[in-house]
Specification:
The protein is built from 5 helices and 4 strands. By secondary structure, it is of the alpha+beta class. The longest helix has 17 residues. About 15% of the residues have low confidence.
Length: 146
């Protein structure tokens, strides 16, 4: 079930507030060597650039509980903006998870987010971050248990 538009707007505003308030960047690979960020591709609209996607992905990877990941593998996550719209402002991202050593693709995830009406750059960035969060937060449940 999709969130109500007013909930998404509040979420987007909160994400923007947190993003503007954060002054520390994190290296996703440094916190946990079992999962790292690989290639990142942004969109064409302002607020969907690769730097926004990368920042959101790094933050989300830090939130993943390493105990929920396969122990014998080092994972690489690559993320790309697949589609964006201006009105309503929406973003779809695709994330792939692969084994670093073998290159075997283990999962493909899609994340989506939107807000009603036209959006400024900051709101579009919040929507992009929410789409990244939607995809990355589901990585542990998408991986095979071994």
């Amino acid at each position: 079930m999709s969130p109500h538009p007013s909930q998404l707007k509040r979420f987007a505003a909160g994400v923007v507030f947190l993003a503007l308030g954060a002054s520390v960047t994190h290296d996703a690979g440094a916190a946990d060597a079992s999962i790292a960020l690989g290639e990142v591709s942004g969109g064409l609209l302002p607020g969907t650039e690769a730097i926004v996607v990368k920042s959101a992905a790094e933050g989300e990877l830090l939130r993943i509980d390493p105990r929920k990941l396969p122990r014998a593998r080092t994972l690489v996550v690559s993320i790309a903006v697949a589609a964006t719209t201006e009105a309503p402002a929406s973003c779809t991202v695709n994330a792939t998870v692969r084994d670093r050593r073998t290159g075997a693709m283990l999962a493909i995830l899609e994340g989506r987010a939107r807000t009603e009406g036209r959006a400024d750059d900051a709101t579009r960035a919040a929507v992009t971050r929410a789409a990244v969060s939607s995809a990355v937060s589901r990585i542990p449940e998408a991986l095979p248990r071994r």
